[in-house]
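User: I'm putting together notes for a lab meeting next week and I want to include a structural view of one of the chains we've been expressing. I don't have a solved structure, so I'd like a prediction I can at least talk through. The sequence is below, exactly as it appears in our construct file.
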Amino acid sequence: MTDWLAGLSEAESPRAMITVLATEGSAPRGSGTRMLVTATGSSGTIGGGQLEYRAVEQARALLGHPPGSWRVQDYPLGPLLGQCCGGRVRLLVEHVDPEALGWLGEAAEGRRLVSTLTVPRVERRVCDDAVPVSVGARGERPGVGAQFVETIGQARRVVYLFGAGHVGQAIARHAGALPLRLAWFDTRADYAEAGAVIVEADSIERCVEDAPAEAAMLILTHDHALDYRLTRAALARSPLAFVGLIGSATKRARFLHRLEGDGIDADARARLTCPIGVPGILGKEPEVIAIAALAQLLQLGTP
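Assistant: Thanks for the context. Below is the predicted structure for the 303-residue chain, given as C-alpha cells.
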C-alpha cells in the first residue's frame, strides 16, 4: 500500500505518477491510490480498465513535458469510457521531478503528506500534525495553490496470529499485501526462521492481554490445550474486534462447554468464531484456509 514510495526512491528512468485525488459513487479504487508509469511500463494500479488505460496515456504524454509538470483530470465512469459504474474519479497526473523528492526520507506509513500544487511542480512535505483534507470529485478542478493532506498508507488492522504451522505460514504469506499488520507468535523455537516471535508457553497469555481492542485474533497452534488457554484469555478480557479459532464444530462445542465451566459468560462465549473462514469455503488445504480466514478479517473493515 506504500509501494509507490519505494518506486519513487528507486527511480532511474523518467516516470510519471498518477494519484487518485477523489472519487464519487462506484469507483475502482479509493483516494490516495497511486501508480507509477514509465515510457514502457508501469507499477501499481488505479483499476478500472479504460480509466487506467486513459490515465496511463495522459501520464506518458506528460513525460514529454518538463519534470514537475502536472494535470488534474476528471473521469466520469460512464459511456465515454465504455463503463457503467456510474461513479466519478478525479486524478492528479504528474511528471515526477527527481530534484524534488527530498521529502521521501521522512515519509513513513501513518505520517501526513501535504501536497501543494505550484508551478513548476507539486511541492510536498511530511509532518505529523496536519489535518487530513477531503477533496471532492465534482466542481472546479483544483489549480495552483490547492493543497491536499493525506495519511500515508492505509489503516491496517492488527492481527494477532498464534501458530506458525502450515496454516499460520500461509496466512503470513498473504497478509503482507492486505491492510493488516501481523503480530505472529509461536512457542516452538524451530519456527523463528519462519518469522514468528517465539514466546514462552507459560507466558503466552500476556500477548493476548496486551492486544489493543481493535485487534483481531487468530488461534491455530499445534496444541489444543494451548488453543484453549489463548481462547479463554481472549474472551475473558475486554472485547476484541475478532476472536477466531481453527477447528471443527465438535472442537467449538467442547471449548464452549469448558469456557462456561471456567466462568466465561454467554456474551463473551458468543464472540468466538470457530471454525474460522468465510462460510461456504470447505477446502482443508492451508492456502484455502488462509485465504478464507483473511477474507473474513477483511469483512471487519478498517479499524
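A couple of points you could mention at the meeting. The domain at 157-298 is CATH 3.40.50.720 (Rossmann fold). The first helix runs from residue 3 to 9.

User: Perfect, that's what I needed.
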